[in-house]
Design brief:
This protein is of the alpha/beta class. It has nine helices and 15 strands. It has helices at 50-54, 129-141, 158-169, 182-191, 205-209, 224-233, 263-266, 283-296, 312-321; strands at residues 3-10, 23-30, 37-46, 75-82, 92-95, 102-106, 111-112, 149-152, 174-179, 196-199, 215-220, 234-242, 270-273, 303-307, 327-331. The longest helix has 14 residues, at 283-296. The chain starts with a strand and ends with a strand. Bound molecules: NADPH dihydro-nicotinamide-adenine-dinucleotide phosphate. NADPH dihydro-nicotinamide-adenine-dinucleotide phosphate binds next to helix 2, helix 3 and helix 9.
Length: 332
């Protein structure tokens, strides 16, 4: 017996901002799982900024998405047929074959998660890759110390909202965020415990952030003008964790670099980029600590949920435009 399933393919490579024409919905018939395989009905899929980079035919830390093939990404689902006794029917699993209603994949490529204590969707957000990114960036890259004053851009997103809260849990004395709307700023300061936050659309971001500096750590999710402002507002020996540069992901021309690079010398600054998947040593530690923080209510999160595979491309485009507060997810 086969299972009919729909999946989203990359039909053409976007130039600049992607449009609906770059994607195509395809119906496929999936076989029963063979020995060592599982068939998963996806219930949640993630849309993430890094996917934009994989739509380009460019050498990077992951290969580009293939044309006329399904996109990939984090997903959570329920095992509906299994050829491997270690992953039984009914198990909730996390895996990398999102952008489709069903996934047929090796049992070794899924991780069984315990969705009884926390919502299954949180394994794509605060307890998943974005939460781990925040933790790795703070602990392994910025090497956060007790008393540090922390600035984070993209602060109301999946990674940024975890950065601010985890920084405080790890002993930061002050946490300041930048985000793209008054509602997001209010969420950060009124619910997440940020000491201050600014709406970067209100004016030059350096001017807006200056009253809240100086900072010891800058967690960069945005790049561009935010990075230049942060370099100016870091204290001597400040550290930058370079996590992302979403302000530039849809650029067709290389953006000019920060104009204040000489401050790296005068202020003895450090900046280090990282890829979350290259820090397996942090995974267990993160799950133990973050699992406890979530259970205690000390690490909270929000999700922006879009319904159905038919709107998955819209969800991705809306993420790039900032329509999400917290983690952007598609419920399948
Ligand atoms: P978010 O949930 O933060 O969503 C993206 C957000 O970016 C939007 O909500 C929007 O919020 C903001 N944004 C979009 N355009 C701009 C702009 N021009 N200037 C400032 N902000 C902008 O996504 P994630 O939390 O998943 O990812 C955050 C960053 O972390 C990204 O850069 C991503 O690539 C990076 N990342 C890096 C990883 C790594 O291993 N290095 C792993 C995971 C993520 P707003 O309304 O505030 O503009």
């Amino acid at each position: 017996m086969t299972t009919s399933s729909r999946e989203i393919h990359l039909a053409s490579r976007p130039v600049g901002w992607p449009t609906a024409e770059n994607f195509r919905t395809v119906t496929v018939d999936l076989d029963e799982p063979g020995p060592g395989q599982v068939l998963v009905r996806n219930t949640w899929m993630s849309v993430d900024p890094y996917m934009r980079g994989r739509m380009n035919d460019a050498k990077s830390y992951v290969p580009p998405f293939a044309l006329d093939a399904p996109l990939e990404g984090g997903a959570v689902g329920e095992v509906v047929a299994s050829g491997d006794e270690s992953v039984p029917v009914g198990a909730t699993v996390l895996h990398g074959q999102g952008w489709r209603e069903h996934a047929l994949l090796p049992a070794s490529a899924v991780r069984v998660v315990d969705a009884d204590r926390v919502p299954a969707s949180s394994f794509l957000g605060v307890l998943g890759m974005p939460g781990l990114t925040a933790y790795v960036g703070l602990t392994r890259i910025a090497q956060l110390r007790e008393g540090d004053r922390v600035l984070v851009s993209g602060a109301a997103g999946a990674v940024g909202s975890a950065v601010g809260q985890i920084a405080r849990l790890l002993g930061a004395s002050e946490v300041v965020g930048s985000a793209g709307s008054a509602e997001k700023v209010a969420w950060l300061t009124e619910e997440l415990g940020f000491d201050a936050a600014v709406n970067y659309k209100d004016g030059p971001v350096r001017t807006l952030l200056a009253p809240h500096g100086p900072f010891d750590v800058y967690f960069d999710n945005v790049g561009g003008e935010h990075l230049e402002a942060a370099i100016s507002l870091l204290d001597d020996f400040g550290r930058i964790a370079a996590c992302g540069a979403i302000a530039q992901y849809n650029d067709t021309e290389a953006a000019p670099g920060p104009r204040n690079m000489s401050m790296f010398v005068t202020k003895r600054l450090t900046m280090r980029g990282f890829i979350v998947g290259e820090h397996p040593d942090a995974v267990r530690e993160f799950h133990e600590r973050a699992g406890q923080w979530v259970a205690d209510g000390r690490l909270t999160s929000r999700e922006t949920v879009v319904e159905g595979l038919d709107h998955a491309v819209d969800a991705f485009l809306d993420l790039m435009r900032g329509a999400n507060t917290g983690k952007m997810l598609v419920r399948l």
